[in-house]
Amino acid sequence: MTEQVMAAIDGSQFSAGVCDYAAWASLALGAPLTFLHVVDNHPQTAEADLSGNLGLGAREHLLEELSHLDEQRAKVAQEQGRLMLKAAKERAIEDGVSDPATRQRNGTLVETLAELEADMRLLVIGKRGEGAHQASDHLGSNLERVVRTLHRPILMAPETFTRPERVMIAFDGSKTTRKGVEMLAKSPLFNGIPCHVVIVGAETGDNRSQLEWALSTLREAGHEAEGAIRAGEVEETLRGYQQEHGIDLLVMGAYGHSRIRHLLVGSTTTTMLRRTSLPVLLLR
């Protein structure tokens, strides 16, 4: 199958943003778009043992009823998923995508995406899923697991779509972020979009050399590019630069050993990624 933009949708508040960013990416990349909804039919743990002290006949009857309820829930979930996919397809067509595809699978989101990874050019996913608390400051647990599992670029979408007009890459000279600069330079996703390269650190000869390499790579590919080296705490410094320059899409490496690439390492995420309202393109 041709590599495609794949958008994972559910009933969360982020699904509209996922649809619109996926449509934008599909059109910019000239890649097919597929919407995916995964139905997790695991039984409800709260109902695991409601029959403890009942007689055998009553217990068997209750288990039959619970089984019937599980079947009904599964049918409702399947139908809800079909309606979500239908609405997502219609929304993408309104955004200009000619023939978006839809897929509904049973299982877990992470396992399903891992199975489909070979088909992906880019995954678009919401910051949190429908199971997360609406007021949560944290990323959804599914998103963190997906980022750790997949080896494809992942676009974390906010609730509402804003067409990107300025993109910033948090750069540290590492292999991952150098690859990110080269991807920005070559990818049609960022055609005509000014690129900002920011190194958080001291004004050293090595950092200056790294910055000049990044800027020249982008400029040689035809991009308008500017950059800066700024000392300070990573999240606060990047957030400040983003606000000063009206950045509306952030590119970061997901893993590694430097301060910037540690942003998703560990059991919690950074304040910047947890609270940002920007889309974030995460690279492996």
UniProtKB/TrEMBL annotation:
<protein>
    <submittedName>
        <fullName>Universal stress protein</fullName>
    </submittedName>
</protein>
<feature type="domain" description="UspA">
    <location>
        <begin position="1"/>
        <end position="157"/>
    </location>
</feature>
<dbReference type="InterPro" id="IPR006016">
    <property type="entry name" value="UspA"/>
</dbReference>
<feature type="domain" description="UspA">
    <location>
        <begin position="166"/>
        <end position="284"/>
    </location>
</feature>
<comment type="similarity">
    <text>Belongs to the universal stress protein A family.</text>
</comment>
<dbReference type="Pfam" id="PF00582">
    <property type="entry name" value="Usp"/>
</dbReference>
<dbReference type="InterPro" id="IPR006015">
    <property type="entry name" value="Universal_stress_UspA"/>
</dbReference>
